[in-house]
Amino acid sequence: MSILLPMLLFYNNPTFPLIFLWNSWVPGMLDALFQITFISTLLLFWLCMYHGLRQNERRLMTFYIPKVVIVVGPLWFMAMLLASWQHWTQVEDPTFSYKSDTEDYHILTVTFSMFLGVYIISLVYLIVRAYSDLRSMPFFDARLKFLTLLMSIVLGLTSSLFVFNYGLSVLSFF
Questions:
Q1: Residue 35 lies in a domain
Q2: Where is the Wntless-like transmembrane domain (predicted)?
Q3: Which of 8, 12, 73, 119 shows the greatest Cβ crowding within 10 Å of its Cβ?
Q4: What CA–CA distance (Å, rounded) separates 74 from 112?
Q5: Number of structural domains in the chain
């Protein structure tokens, strides 16, 4: 949580004035880096919270490293690759649309979707395990319900913003 709160400041695009002062791709890329890093940190937070409710001993190698490999490795890297590719091509060619270079865009989105699917499967597994193990404990049950409600609200808002910005056609891969 102590990492998430400062990351929230960077998510709000602190480099926005640089867009007007510096005619380059750097401010847009910094904005993409900050947003993707915040969202990846939030995904890592959810994995750690649902697993941490059941496990008291949290060693670096056995608890945090597998989650970092799931989130930061493929998800953060693919999201940065996708955002940097799209931003770079839009700066180089202002008339560029991801719909015109469909083959490369679809390869990246399908790969990103596969990694996102692995994340979702691992998160659902941790949620089911947490609910099955902690359902009878009154204090942990309240924490579990609050965490699930918070995650549902954030996922609902994020997915509605995604659909609002990119449309439903982005979700059709074939």
A1: yes
A2: 1-164
A3: 119
A4: 8
A5: 1
11 in any annotated domain: yes
How far apart (Å, rounded) are the C-alpha atoms in residues 60 and 148?
25
Q: List, for residues 47-62, the tens digit of each pLDDT value.
A: 888 888 777 777 878 7
Instruction: Looking at mean pLDDT, say which of 35-44, 81-90, 109-118, 134-143 comes out highest.
Output: 35-44
Under 8 Å between Cβ of 36 and 79: yes
80/171 Cα distance (integer angstroms) = 18
Nearest by Cα to 127 from 39, 46, 42: 46
Per-residue tokens: 124: 């659902």
Prediction pTM value: 0.78
Q: How many CB atoms lie within 10 A of CB 63?
A: 14
Q: Tokens for 112, please give them.
A: 């990103």
pLDDT confidence of residue 27: 83
**DSSP single-letter state for residue 60:** I
Is 173 inside any structural domain?
Answer: no
- Does 23 reside within a domain? yes
